[in-house]
């Protein structure tokens, strides 16, 4: 393996390190943008390192031509790290040893671990931003859940640490019985539906594992009869300031519980969605969506100084009010178009340089 010591290194922690050839397009975008800040980029798998003083990594043969060939290299510990392992691995602690080593060395690492859904609600309360989230309670007993249903008629029961729409249930109170529906339950991508009485509701709660939340069912904007939410992606730039990367509308399948693409949702462009909504006499408050997302991101960066990337699933209710459904600390790049990805890469490289200088 080659030995490269020159210059400042941006290390990207990922399990998607190729053995030869070139890495994925977005890593090459970051490497191109990094050269504008005199940074060199290497990719490394944090779970396959035998010695933190020498990383087994992958880097461009010519740092000025990241679209050319890459090769295995041996590098010192980077000057800044972008932690980009899959969210389920991050939740399981895959990057925990890397994070600990970065702290020990005083090396900035973005993104840090961010609050789960319940902790996020508490965080918003402390930041006096809880008006931007739907009313939320911890799931405790069947009686408490029944009272929530009587109060709101429709609720969402979701795991505090979940992702990808897995185990998100919509419950509706219908004439003394409860209709429950989920798009992805326990990892299966297929519709699950039950109609339950109060006794069966208690059994349903016992079937859930881990901490769950009960959230008021939002009266989501509908276009073409389909519920819509908006992925709002933000990243900090070379000045440490939040920039809008893009807004991506997602439409649920007919009677769908979530808008996730794997659960039957569909991605639209913002222009298409706004045009379709206008034809139905409905407005999309784009500025309010961005302002709400930026307010939450600013509060997060005060509490977590190295947070750089966030994606919010935002809702517009039928009355025009804006709410945050949930935060995605690792929003999927697959939702973003080419200009958004170029801006994202520029911000990631710029923010890395800002962290080093700071």
UniProtKB/TrEMBL annotation:
Entry superkingdom: Bacteria
Residue ranges constituting the ATP-grasp domain according to the UniProt record: 123-357
Keywords: ATP-binding, Nucleotide-binding
Pfam family, one: ATPgrasp_YheCD
Keyword ATP-binding: yes
PROSITE patterns: ATP_GRASP (PS50975)
InterPro entries xref list: ATP-grasp, YheC/D
Protein name per UniProt: YheC/YheD family protein
Organism: Alicyclobacillus sendaiensis PA2
Lineage: Bacteria, Bacillati, Bacillota, Bacilli, Bacillales
């Amino acid at each position: 393996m080659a030995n490269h010591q020159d210059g400042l290194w941006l290390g990207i922690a990922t399990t998607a390190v190729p053995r030869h050839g070139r890495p994925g397009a977005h890593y090459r975008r970051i490497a191109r943008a990094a050269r504008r800040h005199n940074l060199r980029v290497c990719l490394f798998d944090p779970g396959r390192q035998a010695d933190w003083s020498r990383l087994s990594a992958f880097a461009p043969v010519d740092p000025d031509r990241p679209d050319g060939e890459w090769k295995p290299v041996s590098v010192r510990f980077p000057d800044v790290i972008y932690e980009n392992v899959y969210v389920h691995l991050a939740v399981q602690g895959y990057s925990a040893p890397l994070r600990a080593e970065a702290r020990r060395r005083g090396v900035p690492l973005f993104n840090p671990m961010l609050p789960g859904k319940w902790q996020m609600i508490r965080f918003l309360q402390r930041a006096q931003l809880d008006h931007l989230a739907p009313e939320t309670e911890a799931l405790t007993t069947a009686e408490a859940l029944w009272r929530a249903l009587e109060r709101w008629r429709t609720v969402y029961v979701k795991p505090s640490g979940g992702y990808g729409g897995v185990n998100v249930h919509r419950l509706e109170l219908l004439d003394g019985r409860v209709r429950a529906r989920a798009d992805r339950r326990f990892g299966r991508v297929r519709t699950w539906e039950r109609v339950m009485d109060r006794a069966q509701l208690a059994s349903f709660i016992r079937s859930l594992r881990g901490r769950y939340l009960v959230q008021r069912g939002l009266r989501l904007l509908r276009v073409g009869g389909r519920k819509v939410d908006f992925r709002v992606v933000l990243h900090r730039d070379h000045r440490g300031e939040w920039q809008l990367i893009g807004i991506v509308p997602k439409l649920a399948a007919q009677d769908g519980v979530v808008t996730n693409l794997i659960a039957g949702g569909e991605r639209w462009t913002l222009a298409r969605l706004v045009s379709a909504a206008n034809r139905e006499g409905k407005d999309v408050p784009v500025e309010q969506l961005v302002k709400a997302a930026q307010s939450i991101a600013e509060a997060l960066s005060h509490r977590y100084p190295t947070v750089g990337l966030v994606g919010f699933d935002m809702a517009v209710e039928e009355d025009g009010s804006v709410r945050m459904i949930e935060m995605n600390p690792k929003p999927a790049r697959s939702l973003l178009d080419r200009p958004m990805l170029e801006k994202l890469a520029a911000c990631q490289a710029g923010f890395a340089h800002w962290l080093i200088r700071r």
